[in-house]
Specification:
Keywords: Membrane, Transmembrane, Transmembrane helix. By secondary structure, this protein is an alpha+beta fold. The protein is built from 18 helices and 21 strands. Helix 2 runs antiparallel to helix 3, helix 6 packs parallel to helix 8 and helix 8 runs antiparallel to helix 9.
Length: about 700
């Protein structure tokens, strides 16, 4: 091993003389500098510094892996390629000394790239809204991701550089990267049939997340522990690969000691590599199996009636939670104890009212099936039975119309639910983060409710597509929630306001969603806003624009839109729930929202059945509504000019658009009135596909004349 140092020093001097090898350093500095400067010069930030960093980090890491991998092949094969090998074979140098010296200088080169990235990250994150512990955790996360990946790829580069005695050795690096990284690059959270998500573990850095490892108010906590496990296995595998390389390099030059020690080292190292890899596999496999079990429990198959594509397009519309229930949850008192191992204990007192016209002796509740009922009592004699998520309360006495009953329900269990092939934790209770959305069924809901809606999907790996249900309450509920927890440092927020240290109280028709993480809560007008501290100003700007349109639309269409609370969530969670929220709860992303997004979202909230009753005539009405809302935010060109520039195809007949334009030319007030009339007319049709704008306008003109 004495020769390792001279080899390392000599290769280091050669490396310093090669000016081209400084180019990757310069590229990294320029790219990171661009990300930082472009973020900091913005007057309003809609996303966190960490979010902006990790969006670029993944792409830069892939480029760096390619560069470092090719450099490793070069270091392993350069003596042969430049005919220096004929002289090298005369050296009395052991395989270990010769290869390890070159391997170490290559690892140092990769480490320099890592250090540059970490220095830029560390300096930038000093100004981020995170604790010192989170700051260190982010730096260590980037270090293990980069160094683990470099460590393995450099070893693989040496192996192929020695095995393949041609330029094909260089092609092995991009081939490996394409095979291991581009296959998981379909990360929309839904793997196709041919793409087993378990194979996504076979990557040089831990890539088992959707889009970005960063999750807004929860940072990188979700991926941190699994990444350490994954990268520990990767580092051990890198050592195994370089030892195998030593074993294969010039057998006639191996010493007796090397012949004995190298196989022993390989055997010893393979054991912890397999153990750590197995632990990481089991960790993800449990999440995937739980996700698949959830989908199989709820998924429904196509029964063969009609066309499959029609069933596919309308399935979620037909299965939305919009059936009224005669009972209401008048009052819900919850005493909640949260435990860090995803367990929850709840003592609930429910006040239930019969709003129907008939006396009944059965009442239905919905509660997540993973929560075990320990006690179910009432002043009236009651027995409880259960089937999956549905609880049936059997009363000995009839419950009369208008009568209210009290029920005490004690339950406990584990809440850890997954979405998107097990990549996303849908509901969880951790020390540093917490999320219990209403759709997790963590507290009793009135009626038989589907917490999840799923349908078969033959083109996806699990054979189904799964979404959160849209749970709409018919009546508001008065809530009182007492929450006990061990970690009181993490801020909590509910969809009802906090009145004391551990007490939340309020009336909500949406229900309860509980979140805990790195956020601050303030009011924007009359709306409570829960957002990461760095994006609060951006969220405030977006919500003020929403408020402007909400107020305008409420006056125009006589609907209720303004929520009492807004949660600002990362993309993964926003996409899970943005179609399910309603009434006094609203969710936005950590991103800028343009006028069209606001207008389109509000229209779909007002008329969620649009997709089921969409014909060409009504499509123009929807476009007119969008134009009116956008015009209220910022003055637009005339409706017909806007339509031409936005939607018009060269062969489209504009007669109906021009017909509507005549009303707009008479003034915005009349245009709003006629569009409102047309919407109400469409809404009153039994078969909405029969909507005819000309017939509707004739009725409108008739009402004006009368």
């Amino acid at each position: 091993m004495k020769i390792v140092k001279p080899v390392f020093r000599n290769e280091g001097l050669l490396l310093l003389r090669n000016k081209f090898l400084a180019i990757p350093f310069l590229i990294n500095v320029l790219c990171l500098g661009y990300v930082i400067i472009s973020y900091e010069i913005k007057p309003i930030h809609y996303e966190e510094r960490a979010a902006a960093f990790y969006q670029s980090f993944i792409w830069m890491l892939m480029l760096n892996l390619l560069i470092v991998g090719l450099f490793a092949v070069y270091m392993a094969s350069k003596d042969r390629d430049n005919d220096f090998e004929q002289l090298v074979v005369t050296y009395e140098v052991k395989n270990v000394d010769w290869i390890i010296g070159k391997w170490l200088i290559t690892q140092l080169y990769g480490l320099c790239i890592t250090v540059i990235t970490i220095i830029c990250q560390a300096i930038w994150f000093v100004s981020a809204a995170m604790t010192v512990e989170e700051w260190f955790k982010n730096i260590f996360y980037v270090f293990i991701q980069m160094e683990g990946a470099f460590f393995l790829l450099i070893s693989v580069g040496f192996l192929f550089g020695i095995l393949i005695k041609s330029m094909l050795a260089y092609l092995s690096i991009p081939a490996i990267l394409v095979l291991s990284l581009l296959l998981p690059f379909d990360y929309t959270g839904r793997a196709n049939t041919w793409d087993n998500p378990k194979f996504h573990l076979l990557t040089p850095f831990d890539y088992m997340f959707v889009g970005s490892p960063y999750e807004g108010i929860w940072g990188i906590h979700h991926v941190f522990k699994s990444s350490i496990l994954h990268q520990s296995a990767v580092v051990l595998l890198g050592i195994v690969v370089i030892v195998v390389t030593l074993l294969l390099f010039r057998r006639h030059r191996r010493s007796n000691k090397e012949k004995k020690m190298l196989p022993i080292m390989i055997t010893i190292l393979i054991i912890p590599t397999i153990v750590l890899s197995g632990m990481r596999f089991v960790q993800y496999n449990q999440a995937l199996e739980q996700y698949i079990a959830t989908g199989q429990q709820y998924a429904k198959s196509f029964d063969g009636d009609g066309e499959y594509y029609e069933w596919e397009n309308s399935y979620y519309e037909y299965n939305k939670d919009d059936q009224p229930y005669e009972f209401s949850m008048e009052k819900t008192d919850l005493n909640v104890e949260l435990q860090a191992d995803d367990h929850i204990n709840v003592q609930s007192t429910l006040n239930i009212k019969n709003n129907g016209n008939n006396a009944v002796n059965e009442v239905f509740l919905t509660l997540y099936h993973g929560l075990e009922i320990k006690e179910c009592t009432s002043e009236k004699s009651v027995t409880c039975s259960r089937e999956n998520d549905f609880i049936t309360l059997h009363f000995d006495q009839m419950i009369q119309p208008g009568e209210e009953i009290d029920l005490d329900l004690y339950y406990e269990g584990k809440i850890l639910q997954y979405r998107d092939d097990g990549y996303i934790e849908q509901a969880f209770i951790k020390n540093e983060r917490l999320y219990l959305p209403k759709e997790a069924g963590w507290y009793p809901l009135i009626g038989k409710r589907s917490l999840v809606i799923a349908r078969e999907h033959n083109n996806l790996y699990p054979q189904f597509e799964l979404r959160n249900a849209r749970l709409v309450e018919d009546f508001p509920t008065e809530f009182t929630v007492n929450i006990k927890r061990e970690n009181k440092k993490v801020p909590f927020a509910l969809t009802i306001p906090q009145i004391d240290e551990e007490v939340y109280q309020g009336t909500s028709q949406y229900g309860l969603s509980l979140v805990g993480g790195n956020f601050k809560e303030e009011k924007v007008g009359n709306i409570r806003v829960v957002a990461h501290p760095e994006v609060f100003n951006g969220a405030k700007a977006v919500i003020e624009r929403y408020q402007k349109v909400w107020s305008f639309t409420e006056d125009w269409l006589a609907v209720s839109l303004s929520p009492s609370v807004v949660f600002v969530m990362s993309d993964n969670y926003y996409y899970q729930i943005h179609d399910s929220v309603n009434h006094d709860f609203f969710v936005i992303r950590s991103a800028s929202v343009d006028d069209w997004d606001i207008a389109y979202g509000i229209i779909n909230e007002i008329y969620p059945e649009i997709s089921a009753g969409y014909n060409d005539d009504f499509r123009i009405i929807v476009d007119a509504m969008e134009w009116i809302l956008m015009n209220h935010l910022h003055e637009q060109v005339s409706f017909v000019e806007w339509y031409k520039s936005t939607w018009w195809g060269a062969e489209e007949d504009l007669s109906l658009v021009n017909l509507l334009q005549t009303y707009e030319e008479n003034g915005h007030d009349q245009f709003k009135d006629v569009v409102k009339f047309l919407c109400d007319y469409w809404k009153g049709l039994e078969n909405k596909q029969d909507f005819d704008m000309k017939d509707a306008l004739k009725q409108y003109e008739g009402e004006l004349k009368s």
